[in-house]
Amino acid sequence: MADLPDATRVLIVGAHPDDPDFFCGGTVARWTAAGATVSYVVVTSGDKGMPDPSLDPVAFSRMREAEQEASARTLGVTNVTFLRLTDGEVFDTLELRALLTAEIRRFRPDLIVTHDPLTRRYRQHPDHRAVGAATLAAAFPACRLATFFPEQVAAGLSPHVVGRALLFGSDQPDTFVDIAPVFDRKVAALEQHASQASAFPGGLHTRVRQWAEDAGRPAGLALAEAFLSVDLE
Ligand SMILES: [Zn+2]
Predict the structure, then answer these.
(1) Which of 175, 166, 176, 184 is nearest to 75 (CA)?
(2) For residue 83, what are the domain limits?
(3) Which of 23, 116, 163, 208 could form a disulfide with 168 if both were Cys (CB 3.0 to 4.6 A apart)?
């Protein structure tokens, strides 16, 4: 599939500030342009990404949150929620599943987008695996069954069925989104993450273009983002 997947409400769950933008910022720009409502949940605030370890981690986290909010605005995202777990120390726990189930029941997406927890690309941040696993556990079956986290249901967050998940960072993508028309917007969003600029000594634009070319090659697209699609109905 090389079309934009149909969605009206999209929840994107990333481990760190900038993950949603790096992995699917072009697709987000296309969804918001098509009239979809897109919201981010960011599980940590990226305090391990400090270029200088003498900085104050709390102040640095707030700066990364502000960068994430600016980047999301560039792509037309309406809301960013930060769960503020400690960067680098995320596990697929019942507590994280409960937090994510509450976010899903609150926002009520038809489509959820997160990290592929089972990719064999082993050079991956462990937080990405944990967030992908916990998000999928929340999306199926926890959020649809009132017997999961009944205290949320009692508080007014009724069960909700998510139709589909798209997983980014997958080694087996089957869904490719053409981002050529919005590529410059994706780069402009990523440029908002100024504290991370030193991670791209060759230049952000060049690296992001290379990734998009690699992602698009199997589908014959010049610039793409690639996902593994999972039916949750
Ligand atoms: Zn990350």
Answers:
(1) 184
(2) 9-231
(3) 23
Which residues are close to ligand 1, an ion, with C-beta < 5 A? 15-16, 19, 125
Residues facing residue 175 across a β-bridge: 227
> Which tens digits make up the pLDDT trace of 111-120?
999 999 999 9
As beta bridge partners, residue 164 has: 111, 231
Does any domain span residue 2? no
Q: How far is the CA of 96 from the centre of ligand 1 (A)?
A: 17
Cα of 119 vs centre of ligand 1, distance in Å, is 14
pLDDT, tens digit, 9 for 90 and up, residues 170-217: 999 999 999 999 999 999 999 999 888 777 777 889 999 999 999 999
Centre of ligand 1 to C-alpha 16, Å, is 5
Whether the link from the prior residue into 141 is cis, omega within 30° of 0, is yes
| Ligand 1 geometric centre to CA of 19 (Å) | 5
Number of domains in the chain: 1
Question: How many angstroms separate the alpha carbon of residue 138 from the centre of ligand 1?
Answer: 20
CATH number at residue 15: 3.40.50.10320
- Measuring CA to CA, how many Å separate 33 from each of 14, 56, 185, 219, 227? 21, 38, 12, 23, 20
